[in-house]
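Thread: Newbie trying to understand structure tokens

Hi all, I'm a second-year student working on a class project, and my supervisor (Dr. K.) asked me to get a predicted structure for one chain before our next meeting. I've only ever worked with sequences, so writing a 3D structure as a token string is new to me. If someone could post the tokens and maybe explain what I'm looking at, I'd be very grateful. Here's the chain:
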Amino acid sequence: MKTRIISALVALPLLIFIVVSGGNWLHVGIGILGLIGMREFYRAFSKETKGAYEIAGLFGVFYMVFIDEIIYTGNLFSVFVSAFLLALLIYSVLRYQHTNNKEIMTAFFGFFYACFLLSHVYLIREYTHGKLLVWLVFITAFGCDTGAYFTGYFLGKHKLCPALSPKKTIEGSVGGVITATVLSVLYGLWINRYYPLDGVNVLLLCGLTGFFGSFLAQIGDLAASSIKRQTGIKDYGNLMPGHGGVLDRFDSVILTAPVLYYIMLFLIQV
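---
Reply by user tm_fold:
Sure, no problem. This is what the structure looks like when written as tokens:
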């Protein structure tokens, strides 16, 4: 516990600085985290660095460097994904005796799981009103984690998914959803009071993010546990002592961020 607290005290100010700064600071920060998470994912499936994973890594670097251009420029994302898949298929043909379908599919999925999903934090921060709304990702994800933990500790009786996470309970899960939703709505009230956003139903946006985001935050946590159990590892990495790697710490953020981003696209007209 001491190690976890020290790691958090070091990482939290850095996270706040990078998110508040936005721009290149956040671009580089999210890029580094995404690429580290991508490597953690591949290492979980193979102790050796293979060609398909190296190809995926190169595409991951390209994506993280040109997030804005790829996402916001017409059909460029479709071109990017098609080129990525084509490169992997060509590799599977040229190296068919030294690779397998599992490696190719893992390489393709790993990019989307680690790089693409996590990059939504940057996309939110750079979107309209993102400087304020990006914090909803962390309020929802971490609020859900905290609420689920304490509700489960004091009230938990019925196991949620014992095969993946023996300590998680249904009561804890419900407590996580309620906590995240309430905290998100309170944050929305704070925004309305001090930084009102013209033409945006902030309470609706915050409420939807807290409610649906908390469900997916828990799915993200359980999905990460499922992958770790299937690959026989305890943690993805040791970037943060006591917390594990990028995918251990941000497994709930990975699915919460896209929820907020697409809610913003729907509710905020630009």
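A couple of things are worth pointing out once you decode it. The beta strands are 159-161, 165-169. The CA atoms of residues 67 and 73 lie 10 Å apart. Feel free to ask follow-ups in this thread.
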